[in-house]
Write a structure and sequence with these properties.
GO molecular function: citrate synthase activity
Number of strands: 6
Structural class: mainly alpha
Largest sheet: 3 strands, antiparallel
Bound molecules: carboxymethyl coenzyme *A
Pathway: Carbohydrate metabolism; tricarboxylic acid cycle; isocitrate from oxaloacetate: step 1/2
Distance between the termini: 46 Å
Number of helices: 18
Low-confidence stretches: none
Order of helices and strands: EEEHEEEHHHHHHHHHHHHHHHHH
Keywords: Acyltransferase, Transferase, Tricarboxylic acid cycle
Strand content: 5-15%
Catalytic activity: oxaloacetate + acetyl-CoA + H2O = citrate + CoA + H(+)
Radius of gyration: 22 Å
Mean pLDDT: 94
Strand order of the largest sheet: 1-2-3
Protein name: Citrate synthase
Length: about 425
C-alpha cells in the first residue's frame, strides 16, 4: 500500500505523505500544501484536521472508546482514583502505592495560595460568574511564578504542573466562598485531594465537616472522567496559546475561557437549567419538538458530541454511578424522571439517531453534582478541576516537542 496521497488540480499532481499512528485513522500531512500548490485548506471548525501528534489520549468516536496512555476509561473508573489518572497523564504511568502517597503529599503541600490572592477574590462583584473569577485568578497566579515563563528542564515543567493541579481546588473553593461572603477556608492537610475540595466548599470555622465516602467517591469519578479529552476546544486553546511561549498559567486561563461556553464545559449547568425549565415529564415531548425545530435556538443540552457519534463512554460510567447514587445520596426524583424521559424519547427518535446525538458526559454529571449539593454555577468550575491535568499534560508534551507558532490562514471573502 502506498504511503502517499495524491491531489490533482488544474492538470497538475501533488503528493503528500500519509502518516500512521498507533491507533486511529491515517493522517495526510498537508503542511506542504501551500508551498507545493499555492493553495490553503479550508476546514471550518477543524472537523477533519489533526493539529498535533500526541501520545496522551486516544478517542475512537465510532466505537465509543476513550483511553488515557492506553488504559480504557471504564477500567480506570472502576479500579483507580482521580489522582492515579492525574499521575498517568502527567508522568506517563500509573503510580505505585508509594509513589501515589508521595504525589498526594506533594499536592497537599502545594495546595495553599499566596495570601495576596485573597485581595483579588474580594474585588469581584457578588454576581460574578465563578468561571470568570477562575479565569482571572489563574491568570493572576502567573504573577506569583514568573520563573515558569522560561522553563527548559523536565523537572521545572513538573513543578509548574503540580503547582496548578494542587492550587486549583483552593482557587475554586475561594471563588465560591468569596462570592457568597462565606468565611475563607484553607486546605485541610488531613484530607485527600477530592475530599479536601468538598471540605473547602462546605466548612465553617470551628465546624467539623463530615463527608460521606460515597460523596467523595462520586466527585472523584466525575473529576476523573473529565481529566483529558484530546484536542477539544479548550485543549486546542492551551496548545495555541502555548505555541506563542506564553506563561503556562496564562494558557490555562485562556482555556478556562473556552471551557466556559455552553457548547463545551458550560453544558452541565445548561442541563440542569433545561431540566428546571421542562419541570415535568409530560412536557418533555414539547421540548424535543423544539430541539428538532431549526427555527428554534433551543438544543437538548447534554446531547451530541463532535467526536462520539455512537455513545460517550464517560456518559455510560456516569449513568451507572448516577443510578447507584439515587438511593444513597438522594438524586432529585423529578429531575431523574424528566431526564429518563428525555433519554427514552431521544434515543428512539429518528432526528437524534440519524445525527448520532447521544447523551454526553454532561447529561448525567449535572444530576450527580446537584445531588452532592454543588451549586449550578460551580459545575463548569468542577470541570476545570478535572481537566487541569489534561491541559497541563498536553502543554508539557508540546513544550518538550516544540511546535511552530499556531498561525492558521483564511479564505478572504471581504472587500
Ligand atoms: N439538540 C438538537 N440538535 C442538535 C444537538 C442538540 N443537542 N446537537 C447537535 N444537533 C444537530 C444540529 O442542529 C445539526 O443538525 P443539522 O445537521 O440538521 O444541521 C447536527 O445535529 C450536527 O450538529 P453540529 O452542531 O454541527 O455538531 P457539532 O459536532 O459541531 O457540535 C456539540 C457538537 C456538542 C457542540 C452539539 O452537539 C451541542 O451543541 N450539544 C449541546 C451542548 C452540549 O451538550 N455540549 C457538551 C459537549 S460534551 C462536553 C464537552 O466536550 O465539552
Amino acid at each position: 500500500m502506498t504511503n502517499k496521497a495524491k491531489l490533482s488540480y488544474d492538470g497538475k499532481e501533488y503528493e503528500f505523505d500519509v502518516l500512521e499512528g498507533t491507533r486511529g485513522p491515517k493522517v495526510i500531512n498537508m503542511s506542504s500544501l501551500y508551498s507545493q500548490t499555492g493553495m490553503f485548506a479550508l476546514d471550518e471548525g477543524l472537523t477533519s484536521t489533526a493539529t498535533c501528534k500526541s501520545e496522551i489520549t486516544y478517542i475512537n468516536g465510532e466505537a465509543g472508546e476513550l483511553r488515557h496512555r492506553g488504559y480504557e476509561i471504564e477500567w480506570l473508573a472502576e479500579n483507580k482514583t482521580f489522582l492515579d489518572v492525574v499521575h498517568l497523564l502527567l508522568y506517563k504511568e500509573l503510580p505505585s502505592k508509594e509513589r501515589l502517597d508521595a504525589f498526594r503529599y506533594e499536592l497537599k503541600k502545594r495546595s495553599f495560595i499566596h495570601e495576596g490572592m485573597h485581595k483579588l477574590f474580594d474585588a469581584f462583584p457578588d454576581d460574578a460568574h465563578p468561571m470568570a473569577i477562575m479565569q482571572a485568578s489563574v491568570a493572576a497566579l502567573s504573577t506569583f511564578y514568573p520563573d515558569h515563563l522560561n522553563m527548559d528542564k523536565h523537572e521545572d515543567y513538573m513543578e509548574m504542573a503540580a503547582r496548578i493541579i494542587a492550587k486549583i481546588p483552593t482557587i475554586a473553593a475561594s471563588a465560591y466562598r468569596y462570592k457568597h461572603g462565606y468565611p475563607m477556608a484553607y486546605p485541610n492537610l488531613d484530607r485527600g485531594f477530592t475530599e479536601n475540595f468538598l471540605y473547602m466548599l462546605r466548612t465553617y470555622p470551628y465546624d467539623h465537616v463530615e463527608l460521606r465516602p460515597i460523596e467523595v467517591k462520586a466527585l472523584d469519578t466525575v473529576f476523573m472522567l473529565h481529566a483529558d479529552h484530546e484536542q477539544n476546544a479548550s485543549t486546542s486553546v492551551v496548545r495555541s496559546v502555548g505555541s506563542t511561549h506564553a506563561h503556562p498559567y496564562s494558557c490555562i486561563s485562556s482555556a478556562i475561557g473556552a471551557l466556559w461556553g455552553h457548547a463545551h464545559g458550560g453544558a452541565n449547568e445548561g442541563v440542569i437549567r433545561m431540566l428546571e425549565m421542562i419541570a415535568t415529564p409530560d412536557r418533555v415531548d414539547e421540548f424535543i419538538k423544539r430541539a428538532k425545530d431549526k427555527n428554534d435556538p433551543f438544543r437538548l443540552m447534554g446531547f451530541g458530541h463532535r467526536v462520539y457519534k455512537n455513545f460517550d463512554p464517560r456518559a455510560k460510567v456516569l449513568k451507572k454511578l448516577r443510578d447507584q447514587l439515587v438511593d444513597e445520596i438522594g438524586i432529585d426524583a423529578n429531575f431523574m424522571k424528566v431526564a429518563q424521559r428525555i433519554e427514552d424519547i431521544a434515543l428512539n427518535d429518528e432526528y437524534f439517531v440519524s445525527r448520532g446525538l447521544y447523551p454526553n458526559v454532561d447529561f448525567h454529571s449535572g444530576l450527580i453534582l446537584k445531588a452532592l449539593g454543588i451549586p449550578n454555577e460551580m459545575f463548569a468550575v468542577l470541570f476545570v478541576i478535572g481537566r487541569i491535568p489534561g491541559w497541563i499534560s498536553q502543554l508539557v508534551e508540546q513544550k518538550e516537542a516544540p511546535l511552530k507558532i499556531v498561525r492558521p490562514r483564511q479564505l478572504y471573502v471581504g472587500k
